[in-house]
Write a structure and sequence with these properties.
With 340 residues, this protein is of the alpha+beta class. Helix content is 41%, strand content 15%.
């Protein structure tokens, strides 16, 4: 707490007890570093300054303001929860009520309740796992059922119940700034003299994870259609990545395919109307885009067609200049930036 008093990061969501602002910041920071999330937070709350404004907004606009942050289920859940809150008559003021909001887990509920309402709930995030594991020398895997219970109990035992919000923010900042995953600053650590991991030479070995994240490769082939002043897009649905974001017509294959093979694929031919012959051109090949559990290798093709084309009839036809108004993935956004 003394360290935090001298080293705390001055962040806009720390200047308030407003549970809405704290909630938005915590959802943004779930999978995002503070440096990246800072500007997104400011833009988001400028457009949606309160829960009522967010609840009334259309999903496409909410997703557009989230564009580039990734993990888009967070934005969908945030939007749904805003409508929950409005239906409740206001932001819930106890742990059970906050925990019942869509997209809010134990950690986020504890953070909101402790920071906004000074309720004694300990947060357990990646920073807390790391600090507690190293300080106390705990080698129980943090991704095991036993580990989750053990670390939750330890975090609760360490919590300063008279200042829970300040304490929770202190331990998270400490993990982010001093007890870092790589190259921790042990020489500057005020807890170094009682850190078990440091005494035993195990700092780099803690915390322990028993499972490694398995990644899979996916192969996307996008078709950027130019039909006069128009192009075609599609909204992703179903339980897959980037749900409810827009993209160009897509052919996904089970492996990397060459240009000539792509032009003969039945999935592509099915998009083209009988008698029409688009002029295809490869724009970008093998663009690598890394997600948490997937690596996407994307090819971008251009297809030139007349203004009155009957091809791509199952897709949404829009004017080229309207593209910027639709929420898209970071992968598609990067292509559009390069195209411009």
């Amino acid at each position: 707490m003394h360290w935090y008093g001298e080293n705390r990061r001055e962040l806009p969501w720390r200047m308030t007890k407003n549970p809405y602002m704290i909630w938005v910041s915590e959802i943004i920071l779930q999978q995002t570093r503070v440096a990246q999330g800072y500007d997104y937070f400011l833009r988001f709350v400028e457009r949606f300054p309160d829960v009522e404004t967010l609840a009334l907004a259309g999903e496409d606009e909410v997703m557009k303001h989230w564009q580039g942050l990734g993990y888009y289920s967070r934005a969908r859940n945030l939007h749904a929860a805003a409508r929950q809150i409005v239906a409740m008559g206001g932001f819930p003021e106890d742990y059970a009520g906050v925990r019942s909001l869509k997209g809010v887990g134990d950690y986020t509920a504890a953070a909101i309740c402790s920071i906004a309402y000074d309720l004694p709930h300990a947060v357990v995030d990646g920073n807390v796992y790391r600090v507690v594991a190293r300080l106390l020398g705990v080698s129980t895997p943090i991704d095991s059922t036993q580990g989750k219970h053990e670390f939750a109990a330890l975090a609760d035992a360490l919590l300063d119940r008279s200042h829970p919000g300040e304490y929770n923010q202190a331990i998270m900042d400490f993990g982010a700034l001093v007890c870092t995953p790589q190259s921790p600053r042990c020489g500057e650590c005020p807890l170094a003299c009682r850190c078990v991991a440091k005494a035993e030479g195990r700092v780099s070995l803690l915390p322990v994870k028993q499972h490694k994240t398995k990644t899979t490769n996916r192969y996307f082939n996008y078709i950027y259609v130019r039909a006069g002043a128009h192009t075609f897009i599609n909204k992703r649905t179903g339980n897959d990545i980037w749900r409810n974001l827009y993209e160009f017509p897509l052919v996904e294959t089970d492996r990397e395919v060459g240009e000539e093979e792509f032009y003969s694929l039945p999935q592509l031919r099915a998009m083209v109307a009988d008698g029409e012959q688009p002029v295809f051109r490869l724009l970008s090949r093998g663009v690598k885009h890394v997600l948490s559990h997937r690596i996407i290798y994307a090819n971008f093709y251009e297809a030139l067609l007349p203004e009155d084309t009957r091809s791509f009839a199952s897709f949404q036809r829009i004017r080229q200049e309207e593209l910027d108004g639709f929420p898209v993935s970071r992968l598609v956004s990067l292509f559009l930036e390069k195209k411009h």
